[in-house]
Amino acid sequence: MDVRDKKVGFIGFGSMAGAICDGLLLKEVVDPANIYACARDMDRLRAKCESRGINACASADQTAAASDIVVIGVLPQQVEAVVKGAAESLRGKPVFSIAAGIDYARYVSYLGEGFNHISTIPNTPIAVGEGIIVAEATHSLTENQLALFEGIFGQIAKIEYFSSELLSLGGTGAGCAPAFVDVFIEALADGLVKNGMSRAQAYSIVPQMIMGTASYFMKSGRHPGELKDAICSPGGTTIVGISALEETGFRHSLMYAIDKIMDKKHSL
What we know:
Elements: E1 8-11, H1 15-26, E2 35-38, H2 42-52, E3 55-56, H3 60-66, E4 69-72, H4 79-85, H5 87-90, E5 94-97, H6 104-111, E6 116-122, E7 131-136, H7 143-153, E8 157-162, H8 167-194, H9 199-220, H10 224-231, H11 237-247, H12 250-267
Parallel strand pairs: 1-2, 1-4, 2-3, 4-5, 5-6, 7-8
Antiparallel strand pairs: 6-7
């Protein structure tokens, strides 16, 4: 599907909406002249839009009216008022929501039936065209609208569909875990610097190692434990490092972090 001439509107243009926009521009998915955005702070919005060569709009209604597909990127507590206010301009158009915690049922409660929307949780690597979009399998997009959604955003992210019950958990794995990886990069680099490597060298090899390892895992189809075992020679250095990670609870720390995030989400 040729989507470059399609018009994409962002209602709310915070960090995640900006990351999605940057991915679209970087990968040349959509022409910048066909991207529209609105936000409450017009001065900040104009600066963000001018730096990207996209269009700043005065209102949600204006943004929706100008667009073929609309991204709802406002804070969760603002969604109801925003979509109700722009309802007539949203009618008949695919609405792609990135507002955390606002699922299909909530949109129906806000807008009623007859609107076309899908709720998602993207992650920040979408800014470089390497993102994940966790999407709710229950949605009201038509077949053509779903194809448009996938045709545009599938070029900058892997789209995975989850049941409504697992949408939040999928978002934790895709949306929160990049911060864990950032900490891992920093800590591993710190260990190398501690032992004599320059910071620049450490920050050069560690991210490449992570990208290569992830790519190897995905392309090989092998279990991660098997790949780990292949590196751990009997009596070698790698197994000593693995033992140290086990001794300090590396695996448990990651599982515990997921547990705590989900506990927090369930309490909201």
